[in-house]
Amino acid sequence: MASLRSLNRFRALVLLFSLLSDLSVGVLSLGVGINYGQIANNLPSPSRVALLLRSLNISRVKLYDADPNVLSAFSNSNVDFVIGLGNENLQAMTDPGQAQTWIQQHVQPYLSQTKITCITVGNEVLTGNDTQMKSHLLPAMQTVNNALNNLGLSREVYVTTAHSTGILGSPDQVSLEYVLFQPNPGIRDPVTNLNYDNMLYAQIDAVYSAMKALGHTDVQVKISETGWPSKGDPDEVGATPENAALYNGNLLQRIEQNQGTPANPSIPIDVYVFALFNEDLKPGPASERNYGLLYPDGSPVYRIGLQLQEQQQGYLPHIDYSSSGQQKTVYSSFSLLLIALAFLI
Question: Is 88 tagged catalytic?
Fold first, then answer.
């Protein structure tokens, strides 16, 4: 069993599983999506990423901003986008005029050709120490939602925010098998008598239970980030390609089975995998730069482990680089990796 200190290291490695809680009624199609971060200087151009994901039928993408280059590159792609309003914008978004202007500049011009279905207002605000930012979060969400209403867009785009499961606290002990979806006896909830064989499902149901205790039973929980790093600093002993492949591979297999949690077995888990690419300019420990399923050249960091029939294997389009203009061919191992994702959508 891992100690509490080890668990804290694990939680840092998996980004604390940010969860989405809806402010307004709106449901995205279930399945798997991908987080597309861009804190790097060696990534393919957005147009090439659009071509890549389009060819593989990846239909849900989450951004951390509202990058116009990305939104334009995905025109007519039939990809659902979650876009982000950063914490630095929360105070401004409490002003109705500024909120409406932001939507008119960053959302409305793209809606005719790019499917923007959700705006995340703020990111992991409640686990920070900025009390002023916390006080701005709900008013900012409400103001952005009102602006969407005023512009006639509230049925097309809904508003949410992302919370770290760090707000739930930490269990004293947890096994690596329990975290990686590997065979284990599980942990029985003493209140509900339900048995949990993995940590993610227990965390999701803990959020549902907390909301129910507060009288909220009509809010859907979505996992906006979950993943595992393939590399870390010397003290990040769990950050290995083997563990990353186990975590993401086992997670995708459960999504393929349309599994729900023990408390909500009829509601399949809704997940955005973190992340598409390794990002070499991200600050913090080495693990932060190594969550990607892919290297910037498009090759897989590790194999997910889902097998496809031979006739489904093939080559992907050439990928160029916005910084260098170089081209590389991405071979069938990468095709296996992301087509596996596509088949789960």
Answer: no
Rounded CA gap, 1 and 191, in Å? 23
Per residue of the chain (345 residues), what is the pLDDT tens digit? 543 333 333 333 333 346 665 543 333 334 589 999 999 999 999 999 988 787 666 799 999 999 999 999 999 998 999 999 999 999 999 999 999 999 999 999 999 999 999 999 999 999 899 999 999 999 999 999 999 999 999 999 999 999 988 888 777 788 999 999 999 999 999 999 999 999 999 999 999 999 999 999 988 889 999 999 999 999 998 999 999 999 999 998 999 899 999 999 999 999 999 999 999 999 999 999 999 998 888 788 998 843 322 223 333 444 443 433 333 322 222 222 332 222 222
279 is catalytic: no
Catalytic member of 124, 236, 279, 288: 124
**Cis, peptide link before residue 206, omega less than 30° from 0:** no
CA distance 283 to 302: 23
Domain segments of the chain as ranges: 4-343
Q: Which of 88, 156, 177, 225 is catalytic?
A: 225
Which CATH architecture is the domain 4-343 placed in?
Alpha-Beta Barrel (3.20)
Question: pTM here?
Answer: 0.83
122 residue type, one letter: G
Beta bridge partners of 222: 20
User: How many residues appear in the chain?
Assistant: 345
